[in-house]
Structures are given as structure tokens and as C-alpha cells.
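This part of the workshop introduces the protein records we will be handling. To make this concrete, we reproduce a full record directly below.
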Amino acid sequence: METIQENYLEIMIQSLQKKAEVLDRIIAQNNRQTDALKDPQLSVDDFEAAVKEKESLIEQLDLLDSGFDRLFDKVRDALKRDRSQYREEIKVMQDLIRRITEKGNEISTQEIRNKDLAVQKFSDIRKQIKEVRTGHKIATQYYKNMMNLNYVDSQFLDRKK
């Protein structure tokens, strides 16, 4: 007969497995963001959609973490007391946590790379906007000058001799 602690441990293992899956999806999403940031035809809507997708994945991670923490608080004493009885479950959780940590490190590296790409991308966009504004200003000045080219100011003749 399974004890409540064994049920909690099984749920915790499932939670860690789901967390690993969500982290894999975040890694894939980061790769898509990297490709998008390297694309010169990147639209703001596409980039925003990618960010929203990643936000929902992060929310899932937060839920999984909080659920895991609540369960761990319930079984902490039993794990300390009967460590040898739950040796196999503890080993599985340790392996999962190790994999999750590796994925977290990979995500951190991706985030740094994507941040640098985003800063460069937005810098390029600002430069393009400045060039467009400058070009528009020059065209407007040229147009005004050309309109004044054929215009002759009124002149007064002095008829006194």
C-alpha cells in the first residue's frame, strides 16, 4: 500500500518532468527569437507574439515551481527521517533537477545572446528612423526652395529724379 508521501513524491517527479518539458519549449522559443532577431524583415508583431508565447511558458514554470514547493514542504520531514526508504525516488528527482539546472543554464546563455541581438536590432531601427526623418526634412526644404525659385519679390520703383 502506497503512503501519502509516496504519492506526493510521484507527483513531484511528474512536476519535475513537466518542468523539463516546458524548459525544452522555452529553449525552442529562444531559438525562434534568435532567428527572428537576425531576420532583417522582422515585424514588430512577430517579435511581440514570440515574447507573449515565452511569457505563457514562464507562467507555467512558476505554477509548477510553486506546486513542487508546497509538496516538498509536506514531505520534507518524512524524506529526512526515512531517506533510505525513498532512495530511488530521491535519485530520480536529483537527476531531473540536474537536467533542469543544465537547461536553465542554456536558457540563461540564450537570453544574454538574444538581449544583445535585440539591442543591436533596435539600434539599427533607430538609425533607419533617423535617416528617414533626415531625408524627409531635406526633401521638404528642397521643395520649399524650388517653390521660391520662380518667385520674385515685389519691387518699388523710385520715380523721383
Summary: Residues 36 and 43 are 9 Å apart (CA to CA). Residues 87-149 form the longest helix (63 residues).
